[in-house]
Write a structure and sequence with these properties.
By secondary structure, the chain is of the alpha+beta class. The chain has a domain of 87 residues: ApbE-like superfamily (T-fold), CATH 1.10.3980.10. The strands form 5 sheets. Strands 2, 3, 4, 8, 9, 12, 17, 18 and 19 form a 9-stranded antiparallel beta sheet that branches. A 3-stranded antiparallel beta sheet has the order 1-10-11, with no helix packed on it. Strands 5-7-6 form a 3-stranded antiparallel beta sheet. The protein starts with 6 loop residues before the first strand and ends in a 10-residue tail after the last strand. The structure holds adenosine monophosphate (AMP) and magnesium ion (MG). The site of adenosine monophosphate has 17 residues, from helix 7. The site of magnesium ion has 8 residues, from strand 12 and helix 7.
Amino acid sequence: MKKKIIILYLLSLVGLVGLSCREQENTPAMYDSGFTEVMGTFAHFVVVTTDEQTVRRCFDAALQECIRVDGLMSDYKSESELSVVNRSAFEKPVAVSEELYQLIETSLDYSKRTDGAFDITIGPLVDLWRKAGNMQQQPSEEELATARARVGFDKLVLDPARKTVAFAVEGMRLDLGGIAKGYAIDRAVQVMREAGIPGGLVDIGGDVRCFGTPPPGKKHWTIGLQDPQNEEDILLKLGLNDMAVATSGNYRRFVLVGQQKHSHIINPSTRDSAAGLSSVTILAPKAVDADALATAVTVLGMEKGLQLIEGIPETEAMLISSNNPEHVIRTAGTEVFIIQ
Ligand code: AMP
Ligand code: MG
């Protein structure tokens, strides 16, 4: 299933054409790449520039960067660096690129800060629940116990000098699904900046980061938070500059086992899907952090989740609880971003 597009753009997007009337040569215009399939979802790029010549090159470079990151970090692609780790890291430590090593380290850091709610070793439990959905059968206690014994960030052995990754337990599997899109967004932003683009936006599957010059005539980038109950509706609009927004939601991506919905986000301590919050949106300067925290807060739940986010500077949360879907619960600092 394709990832939800939670964030709607309140921009009229009409392909690779300048969206504003260019009254003068040096007035910036906004260009949109349209959507392309990447990382199991759809990505789209927007740039604001006076230099039309650079636009196509910039879109291509940003997309290539997302494809490159996916080639390193996908657990679906058997030839990715991550898949090599997953196949071999129990037999022997596997040397990985600096880039993958660092993202694994960042992920471990989030595991420690969230008491293990965010855990990229979740792979065996994710697999088990996916299989349960396909077979329409609840996993047995024995299957759950076996998978759980293979999960735990404390079982991941990193060697910072050799940049190797090893598994302490057979059958472990890393899953970067909760953080890799955010990382790819940050990389694509970097590539666009290096291409000389003064302002833009990168969207992968509804997770977004905007940077630099906002659209012509605007003070900020406007991003709408979609109503999880009705995709046509926007719950609120955010005015953002140099910020990332990531949303985790268990209302669209789930497997049905009998009548019971199981989200794709698993709570390592209950071994079952994270319940309680139907949608978690995090605002942060970098997409990698927004992405990891959105997944983590979904597991932590409302109280602990809000507590965590209140303690992180320049980072805000907007939560929708499963049993009160009309109401958006926000950290205090979100106020300044809301424009409606
Ligand atoms: P997101 O859509 O960013 O919330 O990421 C969800 C994805 O993260 C899932 O599809 C899994 O690949 C992975 N995942 C599930 N549970 C966890 C967890 N507790 N910690 C880290 N990643 C997880
Ligand atoms: Mg995430």
